[in-house]
């Protein structure tokens, strides 16, 4: 039998725009029961993803902050696959493969831009949790999880004309700007495609190449993940259309967010892949 591994985006994919999961927790639990790893891969922070992982009982590795880091429980893969092969930090029971530069460095650079170019913007680090909670409509607890960003800074407010200037200046300083809908994240070195590739290679070693990778997302921001999958799947966006992801053989399921995920589960994840 061929082992299956599923990579999935979170926002707009297993969660709809109201924060509702639909059937996905139940479906993920049944994948866990069948020993199919489910890898969360999103812009969300470790704290945000850990809350979701706890709710559904996931212990598989996951990719945080748009490829800022990969978190892997120490005993998940053979230690020799990881140690000596990647830049690894150890924290409690986890290996952390870090690709992104630390948030403190990015905030320093953003402060330099603010001063030297007279551009006004407000990031998560500039405001209180209370204010963040009112801007984002998140509970104080969830706002705190969002603020705990280790590999980037989220810009919440900026004038349109300043955004164009900031984008240009930031790029010259090797910073990346990733739009996540309402807000955008500024990162340095984060690489979702590379993070996915590292995990794909670790799983290939673990399963002796007898593995098929399924990926599921909702937006162009997922293209770097979907590009590494054997079976890339796209759910519909909130308006019922599919994002313009240019990947060969992509399967477009007719369902918005979690509804699309459930269709992918029925029609794709649980069928025997041919290889
Ligand atoms: Mg998404």
Biggest sheet: strand arrangement: 2-1-11-12-13
Percent range for β-strand residues: 15-25%
> Which ions, cofactors or small ligands are bound in this entry?
magnesium ion
Largest sheet: 5 strands, parallel
- List low-pLDDT spans: none
CATH fold category name of the largest domain: Rossmann fold
Count of DSSP H/I helices: 10
Helical percentage: 25-40%
Q: What's the CATH class of the largest domain, please?
A: Alpha Beta
Task: Briefly note the structural class of the backbone.
Answer: alpha/beta
**Helix-strand topology string:** EHEHEEHEEHEHHEHEEHEHEEH
If classified by CATH, what would the architecture of the largest domain be?
Answer: 3-Layer(aba) Sandwich
Radius of gyration, taken over Cα atoms and rounded to an integer in Å: 19 Å
Structure in words:
It contains ten helices and 13 strands. The longest helix is centred in the middle third of the chain and has 15 residues, at 103-117. The protein has two domains: 3-100 and 191-269, HAD superfamily/HAD-like (Rossmann fold, 3-Layer(aba) Sandwich); 103-187, 2-Layer Sandwich (Threonyl-tRNA Synthetase, Chain A, domain 2). It has helices at 24-33, 46-56, 79-82, 103-117, 129-136, 140-147, 160-172, 192-206, 223-226, 258-269, and strands at residues 3-8, 38-40, 62-64, 69-73, 88-91, 94-98, 121-123, 153-158, 176-179, 184-187, 211-217, 231-236, 251-256. Strands 2-1-11-12-13 form a five-stranded parallel sheet, with helices on both faces. Strands 3-4-6-5 form a four-stranded antiparallel sheet, covered by helices on one side. A four-stranded antiparallel sheet has the order 7-8-10-9, with helices on one face. It is of the alpha/beta class. Strand 11 (211-217), helix 9 and strand 12 form a beta-alpha-beta unit. The protein is globular, with a radius of gyration of 19 Å. Helix 5 packs across helix 6 (140-147). The structure holds magnesium ion (MG). Magnesium ion is lined by residues 9, 11-13, 218-219.
